[in-house]
Design a protein that fits this description.
The structure holds two protein chains of two kinds.
Chain A: E1 5-8, H1 12-21, E2 25-28, H2 34-39, E3 47-50, E4 60-63, E5 66-70, H3 75-80, H4 82-87, H5 89-95, H6 101-106, H7 109-115, H8 122-128, E6 132-135, E7 139-141, H9 142-145, E8 160-166, E9 170-177, E10 184-193, E11 196-202, E12 209-210, H10 212-220, H11 245-265
Parallel strand pairs in A: 1-3, 2-3
Antiparallel strand pairs in A: 4-5, 5-8, 6-7, 6-8, 9-10, 10-11, 11-12
Chain B: E1 2-8, E2 11-17, H1 23-30, E3 49-52, E4 55-58, E5 71-73, H2 86-93, H3 103-116, H4 122-128, H5 139-157
Helix pairs in contact in B: 2-5
Classes of the chains: A alpha+beta, B alpha+beta.
Chain lengths: 266, 158
Amino acid sequence: MYQFSYVKAKSLKEAGEFLAAHPDAKLLAGGMTLIPTLKARLAQPSHLVDIGGLPELAGIELMDGKLAIGAATRHFEVAGSDTVKKAIPALAYLADLIGDPQVRNLGTIGGSVANNDPAADYPAAVLGLGASVITTQREIAADDYFQGMFATALDPREVIVRIVFPLPKRAAYAKFPHPASGYAMAGVFIAETAQGVRVAVTGAGPGVFRWQEAEAALATNMSAAALDGLAVSAEDLNEDIHATREYRANLVAVMARRAAAKIAEK
Amino acid sequence: MARVEITVNGAKHAREVEDRTLLANFLRDELGLTGTHIGCDTSQCGCCTVQVNGRAVKSCSMLAAQADGADVLTIEAMAKDGVLHPIQQAFTECHGLQCGFCTPGMIMAVAGLLKDNPNPTEEEIYHGLEGNLCRCTGYINIVKAVKRSAELLRGKAR
């Protein structure tokens, strides 16, 4: 690791001001991506501003028929929360599939959504459920928030405060994890929402994306069979040592069928 | 430099450390608690697992500064007065190790797993140990040791 200065922020306001004054400072919450990145010397921030313990970013609650989760909420808290399990069981299920227990004990939902790793799980739920990202400056709809590989609508001084999920009628997530890292080789989140069916795909492309053809097919018939013959184009998908883009395209179709079948059972 | 005060195995330790000091290095180099092993540089192996405020974490992926004020438990605190902790006892009985390098991290991860789920199924044990690697691939006996640990701990609770 290169040298940096560690700063524990006492409030969200203080963290925002610190970021404004130090353009090379980075926020730290759980650190489950950031610290391994620093260990590999892939980043060289001047300061780490620790917001992981801020009470302003804590808490899981149901508000006006929506589920609000504070940005510093750890994955194990979402996975084990009775409120989440009752409101959106697919979200609790997804949180329990992230990384491994040690990662889930420190990693946060805000950190995952801010980082927007193309193989992270939470972006699939945020986009699939049509959630809102509430920041220190504004509210950003999921459809506007995710902008490709590690790219989001956040400006450098903006901090995620909470994620607000509208409750779906039914939802399910199916994931093919990379056997070593636990990251999604392909993960598909399907939700039947008040605005229609939404299908979000993570792990396969350069960033989370909606699969509109599948949404149209599932709108009239929520079943695995409704997806027969449908495929995402392999052309735009990721290819690496772990899988070819054709393999990932097939995984997306298989995971989508599994998620649709899970919803149909509910 | 960061001033940290961390309670480790019940005793408070105040130190002045570089801001980038990892908790694993703090435990090993500052406190001499070398039971916490560092097996990789990539946060994958879980050999460095300790408990921070009651939750299992990889101490190589957390800064000592983040643990300021926290309560940390390492493998050294498991045996008491020369008597093995039930999880250590189970690993011994089931020969849940080959070279033993991953064992401290395994035991601390198992402690975390069994706290959340005192009677895990085999599937749940696999899921609960996903953050720990055994390079000898001695997993069969490790899983046996987890089942035995659960039995011993449940017996103790009764």
